[in-house]
Amino acid sequence: VYLLQCKRGIGKDYRGTEARTWKGIPCQKWAEKTPHNPNYTPEKHPNAGLDENYCRNPDGDENGPWCYTTDPATRFDYCNIPECESQVTHTGEVECMQCNGEDYQGEVSRTESGFECQRWDAQEPHVHGFTLKHYPEKDLRMNYCRNPDGELRPWCFTTIPTKRWEYCNIPRCTMRPPVSSLGSQCLSGKGEDYQGRIAVTESGNACQHWNMQFPHRHGWIPDIYPCKGLEENYCRNPDGEKRPWCYTINSSIRWEYCAIPRCDGTEQGSPGMSNVPMQIPQPEECYQGKGQSYRGTTSITESGKNCQAWNSMFPHRHEKTPDRFPNADLRENYCRNPDGDNSPWCFTMDPSVTREYCNLKRCDDRTQE
Questions:
Q1: Is cis: bond before 322, omega within 30 of 0?
Q2: In 10 A of CB 313, how many CB atoms?
Q3: What pLDDT shows up at residue 249?
Q4: Among residues 240, 239, 247, which one has the least CA distance to residue 199?
Q5: What start-end ranges are recorded for coiled-coil regions in this protein (predicted)?
Q6: What is the rounded CA–CA span in Å between residue 236 and residue 219?
Q7: CA–CA separation, 163 vs 252, rounded Å?
Q8: What distance in Å separates the CA atoms of residue 355 and residue 308, rounded to the nearest whole number?
Q9: Which H/E stretch holds residue 366?
Q10: Helix (H) or strand (E) holding 365
Q11: Alpha-carbon gap, residue 118 to 161, rounded angstroms
Q12: Cα–Cα distance between 190 and 251 in angstroms, integer?
């Protein structure tokens, strides 16, 4: 019940976390007395779930969950909570998602605000690159909510021209999926299934615990990503990096890759030699003109931030995808200039900085000769 973000009937047992009215006005906390002095308080109604400022229905209002508002001119208003019936499958069961819904294949097709989803095979009203052709394994059918790009939870493009996309309200299943015993103790591929206990980076820095925000603040919180194996301070690869990594306890080094022995067993005995081979830089590490022809392997911005991979939508959603710019060589997370900017650039891995120019110099005449 505490995980369901939808209401049954009039929603007297609704215990979700919606905290805005249907007009978008934030709710007043039930325990506070300003701007409105409430009749319904946690003390008077201890079993009504009056936590924080979440929408509730303590008085059995026929119009459903409501809250006191933070607008002095509006004492209370109703909240836009979807009916659970809209999340019932043809088998009669309430749909839920495991983990972050990467494998969700249900039939919910409305966003959390109630907008109807745009079909994945349509390009109106929003043009996008999430097509069945480019994501054949992501079950992009009809206009059902999906999570093809590792977002927090399933989402869809909306049929509203002014609202490009929005998350969908799909409750997390109360039963956790069985933990796979196949979690690898060694490195295969990019190490996304690595579940070992190495907790030190390749240069010897100890890893920061995933549930800590010091010395580095970050978004990879175990409670938000319950199936990424973010235990203790073990090296992990939750975001499809080149190999497992971690934030370090060194305040001057935000994160580093870890040295994980490869699964082929040939180098298990010498961890120092067991890293994935480093990318050999191409000789072309300067650019000509605006750098639209630059094909080097630099992936660091001018302020030292790591570049986001072009085919990734985390931490920044964008339109500069390899399929939309097939001639721009948008490989890995290498600096490029697909749109005729002043010089090569990239999206950054810093959630607060969308994009930056790269740490590259223009080739001088002698270099060109």
A1: no
A2: 17
A3: 93
A4: 247
A5: none
A6: 14
A7: 39
A8: 9
A9: helix 365-368
A10: helix 365-368
A11: 10
A12: 26
Q: Which residue has the higher pLDDT, 315 or 92?
A: 315
pTM of the model: 0.42
Task: Tell me if 144 sits within 8 A of 97, measured CB to CB.
Answer: no
Write down the residue that tokens 């939508």 correspond to. 313
Q: Is the pLDDT of residue 7 over 90?
A: no
Q: C-alpha distances in angstroms, 237 versus 103, 218, 263, 275, 314?
A: 18, 14, 16, 15, 14
How many CB atoms within 10 Å of residue 278?
9
Backbone phi, psi, residue 365, to 5°: -60, -40
Task: For residue 158, give the 3-state DSSP assignment.
Answer: strand
Question: What does the mean pLDDT of the chain come to?
Answer: 82
CB atoms under 10 Å from CB of 363, counted, come to: 17
Q: What is the pLDDT of residues 39-57, one digit of tens each?
A: 999 999 988 889 999 999 9
Count the helix, strand and coil residues of the chain and give each as a percent rounded to the nearest 5: 5, 15, 80
* Residue 355 pLDDT grade (very low, low, confident, very high; cuts 50, 70, 90): very high
Tens of pLDDT along 300-351? 898 888 899 998 888 888 888 888 888 899 988 999 999 888 899 999 988 8
Tokens in use for 81? Answer: 């909570």
**235-247 pLDDT, tens digit each:** 999 887 888 999 9
Tokens 């009809």, residue?
142
Structure tokens at 352: 């607060």
* 116 strand-pairing partners: 110
Cβ pair 134, 59 in contact under 8 A: no
Domains and CATH numbers, the chain: 1-85 (2.40.20.10), 94-174 (2.40.20.10), 189-261 (2.40.20.10), 286-368 (2.40.20.10)
137: left (phi over 0), alpha (psi -120 to 50) or beta: alpha
- What CA–CA distances, in Å, run from 102 to 120, 172, 312? 16, 12, 14
Residue 346 forms beta bridges with which residues? 356
